[in-house]
Design brief:
Blueprint (H helix, E strand, L loop, with lengths): L11 H9 L8 H7 L2 H14 L10 E10 H8 L6 E3 L20 H28 L8 H16 L8 E9 H12 L4 H15 L27 H14 L10 E5 L3 H12 L5 H10 L2 H13 L16 E8 H7 L6 E4 L12 H4 L4 H15 L5 H6 L6 E8 L1 H11 L6 H17 L1 H4 L16
Antiparallel strand pairs: 1-3, 2-3, 4-5, 5-7, 6-7
Length: about 475
């Protein structure tokens, strides 16, 4: 008869060691855990994880980490981890009026002016949206007044969030394995942004050196992962790829493109090169694919050889090269990108933020007299960004309305899941519009599959569903 039980209050590294012993011992997990110590676990992990390279052992140690008071810009990079599980403060349900913002040392006054300008617009658009929505959607007789106010206010946040600057401080919590955490820290340490590199170092120190917050026994707290992540360093291979492909990506001519483009079954070699170019440039995926197809075989071989020759002994193949049957090249506002970015069973390549992509206008404002004021303020805001001495600073004061291009690859079941989930009436109008176009693209190319997707048309909308 099976013997099944749960264990609790075991430090993650001891738990990983205890489970790993299943491969070396016929004893029960309970018996092993009762005899293990921190020192034994550290010695075992040093031998089998670091020396022998049994990376799967780190999958057995899971930790919960809070990452608070960071910019929305940095949070997007932290969340961009394929096996990440967590939650972030929601711009759809929380009021960010009066929020603090990330301010690097010695920034010019224009940085603060640009930030306060967006917060002022956020406040005004929120007030205008409340008035617009209250007038457009009166309270149903059966709905409680407090429920109505909460729902309409959340709808107003959906519109006002377009104006939030990306330096707005947010917080998130994540639960990951030590293996994912190590990959995440190495990736973040290689970021060109100082804030993200500092977060990576603090993340490493917070789990390897500083005592964890122990709610049940505050006086007995110790570092949560003193061994498994202690050797994490910046991902030098990621930096090498950036140095190789950024200059080349600038040579890709930009062909006409739309907000949603679907690619199916592109030739493997060309698609691999196109994804590397896409990741380090600003051109559409179709443009990168055409550029790669125009290269000679010798040029393709040489480029891939150079890229893969830089790979270190323990470096995985670049995540940019992971394949999936459906590839959607999308242009969305950053607010919608953050929602798509939470889907785990997809491969994503997000291009760097580029002020030339300009901004989206929230649909409800188009139906009101507030559209002209909104567009005029943001147009002037974008003109002023050129006064900032550093493009990285300009990224922090882009609004969530800013448009961003990214490539999202997935299989058909995941595409159906995303379309069905994100097209629902309670979804944000910006991504409802995008997933409807994704559905239409599949319907055009693969109608035999599209008819099984339970999509909600954009016109099917209930403002009181949240």
């Amino acid at each position: 008869m099976p013997h099944i039980y749960a264990v609790t209050n075991v430090p993650p590294e001891i738990l990983a060691y205890g489970m790993a012993k299943y491969s070396r011992s016929n004893r029960s997990l309970e018996d092993n855990l009762r005899e293990l110590s921190d020192d034994q676990a550290a010695k075992f992990l040093q031998t089998f994880y670091f020396d022998y390279g049994h990376a799967s052992i780190a999958d057995l140690a899971h930790v919960a980490v809070a990452i608070e008071d960071i910019s929305i810009l940095a949070a997007m990079d932290i969340v961009d981890e394929p096996l990440w599980d967590g939650q972030e403060r929601s711009t759809r349900y929380q009021n960010f009026d009066g929020s603090a913002y990330y301010r690097p040392e010695d920034v010019p006054a224009d940085y603060d002016l640009a930030t306060h300008e967006l917060f002022d617009l956020y406040r005004r658009v929120q007030e205008q949206s409340l008035a617009i929505l209250t007038d457009e959607y009166p309270k149903p007789p059966a709905m409680l007044e407090k429920t109505y106010r909460r729902t309409i206010r959340a709808r107003a946040f959906d519109i006002a969030r377009y104006c939030l600057p990306l330096n707005t401080l947010t917080s998130l919590g994540q639960i990951t394995s030590a293996r994912v955490l190590e990959q995440q820290i190495r990736r973040l340490m290689a970021s060109p942004l100082p804030e993200i590199r500092e977060i990576a170092q603090q993340l490493k120190d917070g789990i390897t050196e500083r005592p964890a917050v122990d709610i049940s026994a505050p006086d007995q707290s110790h570092p949560v992962l003193p061994t498994l992540v202690k050797h994490s360093e910046a991902d030098s291979y990621r930096v090498s790829l950036r140095n190789i492909f950024e200059p080349l990506a600038k040579k890709v001519p930009s062909l006409p493109s739309t907000n949603v483009e679907l690619t199916i079954d592109a030739p493997i070699t060309e698609s691999q090169i196109a994804q590397l170019l896409y990741a380090h440039g600003q051109a559409s995926y179709h443009s990168c694919l055409v550029y790669a197809q125009d290269m000679s075989n010798a040029e393709k071989d040489e480029l891939l050889s150079v890229a893969l020759a830089e790979r270190g002994k323990h470096d995985a193949w670049p995540r940019y090269l992971r394949q999936a049957p459906l590839q959607f090249d999308l242009v969305v506002d950053v607010g919608a990108f953050r929602d798509f970015n939470r889907h785990r069973r997809v491969q994503k390549i997000a291009q760097h933020l580029n002020p030339e992509m300009l901004f989206a206008v929230p649909e409800p404002l188009i139906r009101s007299r507030s559209e002209d004021e909104y567009k005029a303020i943001l147009t002037q805001h974008y003109r002023c960004l050129s006064a900032l001495p550093d493009p990285q600073l300009a990224s922090y004061v882009l609004p969530l309305a800013h448009r961003r291009r990214f490539l999202m690859s997935m299989d058909l079941p995941e595409a159906a899941y995303i379309i069905e989930l994100r097209s629902r009436s309670q979804g944000h109008f910006s991504y409802r519009h995008i997933v409807w176009k994704m559905y239409e693209a599949i319907q055009s190319r693969l109608p035999e599959f599209a008819r099984h997707i339970r999509v909600t048309p954009p016109e099917d909308f209930n403002p009181f569903q949240r």
